[in-house]
């Protein structure tokens, strides 16, 4: 089959299947185990509203954990790390489906364009190679935000209370997945859409105001009634302020200059190709009302993250859906030769995913010396031989060790945080501390240290 015979629909299928490639291959990566530990302890404790890590209360919303639990019940708890990734992949495929449906709505005369749009999303570097499949809450968070904004778009354009209700429910689910920052994006998109369609009258219609007010009350209800005064919102505010406080002016300048470039670069290949066509071939793009609206939404939603002093690429995941729609509209302005180049680039990304998933990423993360978390877990379990195990290790490797051990021990004996009082136990620590007892063994793991002590 030659390249011109490969349709966008077929490429979408291969890109979607490619999202699954690294799932069973990789051990826990970074803080994936934070989410799986939370899911496991919610399930074993039966307290569905309060997340804990090593038995310590952790004020985070639980929807992502619930989804992990649902998948783990289907595929087996021994595959807990895969369950978290399946949730993320499902969310990414869901976001691609929204891109498809919104493109079909925006450009009904272009039958193949929705498939190209979905392909653009699934082959974005950040989605395909990292956060689109990684067992973090970000892909699911992004899906609910994108779905909420898409529903809000339809609600405002069609003046539909039902779509607005759907949008309000979806933004509540976004909050319930991670934190209340989703409301900032929701409001930003809503302001742009009301301005774009001149729907100012909706701001005084009860059928439109009531669902939105209820959605914005949900975090308060969750925190003060469901959690009975928990601190989820306070934690989120603290996390946000850390991106603004304590940085010098030059750090701000560097971030302001590089963050938009980071956003576009990590969405390769189509972003880079459109820039290349603009620079080399003098390709010029025009913004129709739809593209102008998408651009305004992106700029306004990105603004708080852009104005901060720092921010990880994880913060950008919710914006790749609208960006895919924007890139799709811009690609309509390319000639057939450039479209072929774009298609080839996306095909190359799909092909690259195979060696990346099966060899490159495992070599970087697992196969190099002192990288094998499971080998350390086997060693620890052989030494402890069923005796109680406690931990003082809450860095990523310590969380991963705990997550692997938990699913291999009775559910009422999961690894708990050491309270400083218990005896006749083994204790894991990330630092050397002779006060904990007799040092049994030490491992160097992924640049960190893990010490196993016996507390007589």
Concise synopsis of the structure shown:
61% of the residues lie in helices and 7% in strands. The chain is α/β, with parallel strands linked by helices.
Describe it.
The chain is an alpha/beta fold and about 450 residues long. The chain has 2 domains: about 5-30 and about 60-360, no CATH class; about 375-455, no CATH class. Helix content is about 60%, strand content about 5%. It contains 18 helices and 7 strands. The strands form 2 sheets. A 5-stranded mixed sheet has the order 4-3-5-7-6. The chain has a two-stranded antiparallel sheet with strand order 1-2. The model has no long low-confidence stretch (mean pLDDT about 90).
Question: Secondary-structure blueprint of this entry?
Answer:
Blueprint lengths: L7 H11 L13 H14 L5 E3 L2 E3 L4 H13 L4 H27 L6 H10 L2 H5 L8 H21 L2 H17 L3 H17 L8 H21 L5 H10 L7 H17 L4 H11 L8 H19 L12 H12 L4 H32 L5 H12 L4 E4 L3 H11 L9 E2 L7 E5 L8 E8 L2 E8 L1
Parallel strand pairs: 3-4, 3-5
Antiparallel strand pairs: 1-2, 5-7, 6-7
Helix pairs in contact: 1-5, 1-16, 2-3, 2-18, 3-4, 4-5, 4-7, 4-15, 5-15, 7-8, 7-9, 8-10, 9-14, 14-15, 17-18
Strand content: 5-15%
Sketch the topology as an H/E string, one letter per element.
Answer: HHEEHHHHHHHHHHHHHHHEHEEEE
List segments where confidence is low: pLDDT < 50 over at least 5 consecutive residues.
Answer: none
Number of DSSP E strands: 7
Helix percent reads 55-70%
Give the averaged pLDDT, no decimals: 91
Total domains: 2
